[in-house]
TrEMBL record:
Principal EC category: oxidoreductase
The organism of origin for this protein: Rotaria socialis
Task performed by this protein: Produces nitric oxide (NO) which is a messenger molecule with diverse functions.
Xref: PANTHER family: NITRIC OXIDE SYNTHASE, NITRIC OXIDE SYNTHASE OXYGENASE
Name of the protein described by the UniProt record: Nitric oxide synthase
Binding residue positions for heme b: C122
Keywords assigned: Calmodulin-binding, FAD, Flavoprotein, FMN, Heme, Iron, Metal-binding, NADP, Oxidoreductase
EC number: 1.14.13.39
Signal sequence bounds: none
UniProt keyword Iron present: yes
Amino acid sequence: MKLKNYQTNQSIKVTGPVSNLHQDCRHQVCTSTLMSLPAYDDQERSESQSYDELQRTSSEYIFKEAYEFLSMYQTAKGLSVESFRARLDAIKFEIESTGLYAHTTAEIEYGCQLAWRNSARCINRLYWSTLEVLDKRNITSNHEMFVIICDHLRMAYNQGVLKATILVMNREARLWSTQYLRFACYQELNGSLIGDPMNQELTKAAMKLGWNKPLKERTQWDLLPIIVQCDPNLPPSWFELPEDLRPIVFLSHPDPTYDAAMKSLGLRWIAQPFVSDKAVEIGGIVYKCVPFSGWFMETEIGRNLCDIQRYNIIPKLAALLDLDVTAAANAQLNVDRIYVEVNAAILHSFQQAKITIVDHHTAAAGFMKFMREEAKDRGNTPADWVWLVPPISSGMSVLFHQEMLNYVVRPRVIDQCDPWTYYQPFQMYCNDVKISHIRRNTYFFKVLRIACIIIGLAVRAQKKQISIHILYASTTGIAKSYAEQIRKRLIPDGYRTTLAELDAYSFHREDKTQAVTIIITSTFGQGNAPEGGQQLEKWLKKKMNEIDRCMQNQGVNFSHLSYSQLKKSLQWCTYAVCAIGSSAYPSFCGFGKLIDRVLQLLGAHQLVPLVTCDALHFQYRTFDEWTQKIIVALKKLDLHNCETQLHQQIPLLPSCSSPISSASNIEPQNSLATFVRPQYIPLNFDGKIDEISTTQQVGPFTKDNPYNAVVLKNIELIGAFNSQYDCAAESPETRQQLATVSDTIQNESFILSECNEARKDEYHSVRLIVFETVGWSYCPGDHVCILPENTIENINAIILACGWQLESKLLSDTCSLACLSNNKYKTLREILTWFVDLTSAPRPDMLNIIATYATNTNEQRQIMDLGKGERFYENWLNEKPTIIDMLNQFGSIKIPIEDLIQLLPPIQPRYYSISSSNFYYPNQLHITVSVVTNRTPKGSVREGLCSNYLQRTTPMFSQDYQKIFSPHSQKPSKVRLFISPNSYFRLPGQESLTSHMMPYEITKVDSLLPLNSPILMFAVGSGIAPFRSFWQEMQTLQRLCSYVKVERILFIGVRTPNALLFAKELQDIINETNDRRLLTAIIPVYSRARPGTKKYIQEVMSEYKHMVYSILIQQNAYIYICGSIQSCLDIESALASIIQLCHPNKLTQLEAMNIIKQLAETGRLRKDMYG
């Protein structure tokens, strides 16, 4: 075929791929303007959903590509057939042995030259054969990488006569820097940016790694450090380039007027590009770190300075030059004039500095020469017209008129993901998730909400109505949200409803007036009640005990008078229970099931059967179906008639029945009219600027009245800080000490895991946060609840999305929305910072209301489809979308900020196990925080709100308790928190301790039991947190009273020795003499200590089965397990297996599990799970 140039009217005859008969691309859909090249059949998807050639495993593909590349290499270098076959055989043998093969230096050099030659987006390929290649695949450390990069900079710069060079490092190395020289971008508190916006994410990554500039020293021309990572299993390092390797060209202009304007702005740019974020594929082998140097075409720098999304200097220059660049003056072409002069200044400045640069006309002519040579040499060359045509005076360029073909030829240059987006300390890799493609049904789905039921039902006399009490108990706010929703559905039908927490309602009352009680509750911990339901839980358990005693006294004779009285005590009550939870927990919806069981035993009548809403399986849809059954049942009860006898007319609906009439074949349709906006509080301002209160904090401290604790220390626990412990594993004396646990198990071998081959990196961050809590008391095992705050980035994003200016003074004025927080947070900024949650995914009920604010009909329908809470919504949730993501996704949503604030859920407290003893550290409270960063299936990075908030707090002291002084240092952070007692996970004998007992008092009660009780402890990862409070508490007790020697064993499961938290404290405990040692043995289990092997606690437990059985059964030990849900269940199963194997009666697995169940019921097995 022929490619015609419509300027010269000449054609170039070429051969090459044609996609189909019509010569278009991909079924008549052109993808030429996409920034990233589309996928090809042989490409695989990575977890980030980007096309990842970097993890290719197919030996067949690699050998095929190796053969094709070696054939090209043989032809170009004139190799003999014998040499070609010998090399091919060697490559084949290497691939069969290792799955990969290694190129020679000559092959690397030629492969890189071909990759540049085949790069469709490069205009300077005329010089591809002159490319110099530095083969540095032997580097083994980050420092070596940096030294080589410095050498590369010097060689390529060549005193201003720039060279085309490429540096090839080992296959696994990565350069985080997208170019060697990049200008930083900082985000100010008001949301504005300083620097090059293109590098905002890279700047954030550098700051997370420890690089920073003091606030007063920051400019828009700060060069970022070089960030290198020679091995993905090692953490990256950053290095500042020396001054002699920072070539910068300051712009000047031959015209004094333009020259003065440009110099006043301090315009400059780097002298040479070093592209370092691309990969190169040569013969099936991909090299991820191949920084390439060349020289600039002046339009590249011009766009960097002038593009609106970059430095955007044209408005600033226009103001200095007194030129009008508004839309009204478009006809004057002032924008074009300034843009051309900026390019002229760039060429002038580089020429004055005697540094190589090329103008776009010369570059275009060079490409045309290259294209003709390629057509003669190999028939064609790939060319991307969109990228090659210069952005300035395009129509005057010969390339604008030239036809081109774009296709893939190997060797080639490949785009790859930025490494900080999948660096595991910044985020945890998700498991491979394949999201099925969901067909979009053109018909409407089932109706989810019926906000107004049969408007024709007149509102009857309120006094004659039977009350409907909607009660909730909630930890995260979901149960309360559901309770509010069901109340909104009932009010339009004239029902008299009340909304309250469970504990605010009394089931034990003299007034036996009939009432309907709708209960929505979550479950906390091991099937226990959340806040707001704990008093009811005590009452229910008391009633259960009374029933049990009655049944034991009379066998199963239910005619006994006491039981008959109990059975009639709640006959006045008609109830329905919706239990919310996650089936990942063994006691799924335990509290809701307890309520249902006891109410039935006490004679209450079910309105509809108990429903369990699983967070892992269409929770909202289950709730919605249950709500509709409630509505149907209430209609049949005719509650508007005060003479109704509820227990005689209960229309019990089977759990599978549908609230929609079976006689109807019409599927209900969603309509915006169905979803009514709530009554909003209007936004008003009183003109007063909120002043920070300085009054002293007064308890009791709760969620509504949290304590503002000063952060004393904020320490990273992963890494070298924990390296002291591993020496114990190497000492024969230490091993011998651990080998003897007690006289009964002297033959057991306690050997700590070897760690010589342990990797230095850990894939996450764990922080020790120390708070000042003067006068506070708490018990080991208790939780502290943290109320986080939203980031300034998220706050500003919401403000902008709602059409406000960040500098608006009204944001800091007291407003009418202060009543939402009982006047605790008075301004819009305070409310957005401390009160509403900006990071949780919007719930279906909220989506249905937000849909009414969308001005685009298609977007309205999509949002309503999400509001159904079905599969479409569940798949949307996989990306963990925030309200900000939603507003960005559906751009037609125009919602006032006051409406949005009233729709958003309040920030809920996050629970952390306390990892200190109040007696060991008076006036302090410690927590261990595993910093949460997740990667969604589509590659988005989601940071946990609370853990990342705590990570960013500013402490008062350094790690060694030196006060932090710096002219730029911030005041120590204050964190809102309160205590949540957790008697279920306290030390033996301390379950009923009050939080106000002093150390000398605890020696007078049963709290000495921790020293007298054998204990088995199992900690997984940061699950060691409560056990630290345990051993500190026992150390205090040990000093106050005589020591009793019992067995206390601690199993710890971590990835590598560097991840072993509180290693130095554990080492000190191990170093104690045998007669005073607090813990008999500490057994760390490293799941990633050696590459390719995994070992977990439950596997190591079997090696010590006789010891575990002896302490557990024969010595009546208490068992404590803390970790993720699955790890706790695995450890529990391992305990059952040990009992089954070691029990003299040869128990079955079921019998062994029953023993474990009995241990849990009697309080000897206690779990603190998270997940």
